[in-house]
Q: What sequence folds into this?
């Protein structure tokens, strides 16, 4: 079933993911891990925000899967079976299967409920939707 939603503003972790991806695209020797640290430090001065692991692990999970533009698949998360990676890849698969038409806005809250049910929002879908809207994902 395809859904259409009102476009949402990118959150700080979505901005971070897009900026980290742009940095890696401009410098293929830069790891997504180093790019994330640089990008989040530019986006936020809050140590809590900078240290938040859920959106970071979601981004690394997409990178590990080889679905982020110009970033080689590899190992970027500290734990192989990271739950945030599972959530974000579940969302990625829904988008890939046509959950929303390309070019249409995607509501991260509805996508999160589809993938994560009643689990707390820890910005994993902000990362995914922002990368999708910025054309940084490979399908």
A:
């Amino acid at each position: 079933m395809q859904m259409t939603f009102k476009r949402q503003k990118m959150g700080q972790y979505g901005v971070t993911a897009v900026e980290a991806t742009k940095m890696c695209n401009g410098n293929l020797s830069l790891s997504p891990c180093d790019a994330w640290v640089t990008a989040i430090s530019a986006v936020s001065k809050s140590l809590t925000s900078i240290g938040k692991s859920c959106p970071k692990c979601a981004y690394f999970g997409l990178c590990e899967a080889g679905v982020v533009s110009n970033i080689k698949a590899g190992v970027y998360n500290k734990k192989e079976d990271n739950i945030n990676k599972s959530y974000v890849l579940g969302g990625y698969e829904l988008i890939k299967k046509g959950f929303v038409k390309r070019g249409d806005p995607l509501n991260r809250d509805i996508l999160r409920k589809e993938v994560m049910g009643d689990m707390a929002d820890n910005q994993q879908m902000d990362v995914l939707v922002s990368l999708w809207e910025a054309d940084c994902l490979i399908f």
Q: What stands out?
A: The chain has one domain: 12-133. The helical segments are 12-26, 32-43, 47-51, 53-64, 83-96, 108-116, 124-133. DSSP finds seven helices and no strands in the chain. The radius of gyration is 14 Å.
